[in-house]
Amino acid sequence: MRIDVVTIFPDYLAPLSLSLIGKAREQGLLDLAVHDLRGFTRDRHRSVDDTPYGGGAGMVMRPEPWGAALDHVRSLAGPGTGGAPHLLVPSPSGVRFSQAMARELAAQPWLAFACGRYEGIDERVLQDGAEAGPVTPVSLGDYVLGGGEAAVLVIVEAVARLLPGVIGNAQSLVEESHEDGLLEYPVYTKPAVWRGREVPPVLLSGHHGQIERWRRDQRLRRTAARRPDLLAQIEPASLDDADRAALAGDPTSGPDDAT
Ligand code: 6GU
Predict the structure, then answer these.
(1) Residue 115 C-alpha to ligand 1 middle, in angstroms?
(2) pLDDT digits over 144-162, tens only?
């Protein structure tokens, strides 16, 4: 996969050289480039923003540097990138990012991110970009960040770990929160007693059926307590009697009150 990021703060993307993503880049699984928007300005002050038409608070990012930067990114098409990148524009006004969207993006050959600052990017940049390829404004959630850069770190990490070969054990991608609508069960490792706290005995029992049942109960109760919105989306027919029994307890207290 190829990813291009355009920003006025290239250093903000430095963590994309570390850990999982850094390794994926070294292994050639991910080809990622960061571009400085100011390199595409033509005035002496290298200005990227101006006052909003219609009045109002704050500044708006000017279309000219964005047009030049995105034209340049599109000129980097190569073998395996397809025609144009899918342009993602982080914004609190975007469509909500999710594991499902991460999976869709991970299947695409080329993504580009346009990091807005201030009150956002002149809307015509998105309209113009849509003539070349898909454009999706994307939001992490219902809060406001200072700019798109932190969102790009989040989205690229969520996408990159789904690329074939990035995570050694593919099963760990299946058995995790948000892959099947339930949160993950709590996990424990040695020692069996720590600061007087025991690991739930069933996990030491060797009874695989009981362990599986306990873990599913935990997932159901945890989801009910922490994310009732997710539980409400579960198909009732997909729950068996044991599932319903697990949910019949006090939803605000897990077995260890591990809510
Ligand atoms: Cl993707 N960008 C910005 N600037 N703020 C946000 C966001 C994105 N998601 C939530 N808040």
Answers:
(1) 10
(2) 999 999 999 999 999 999 9
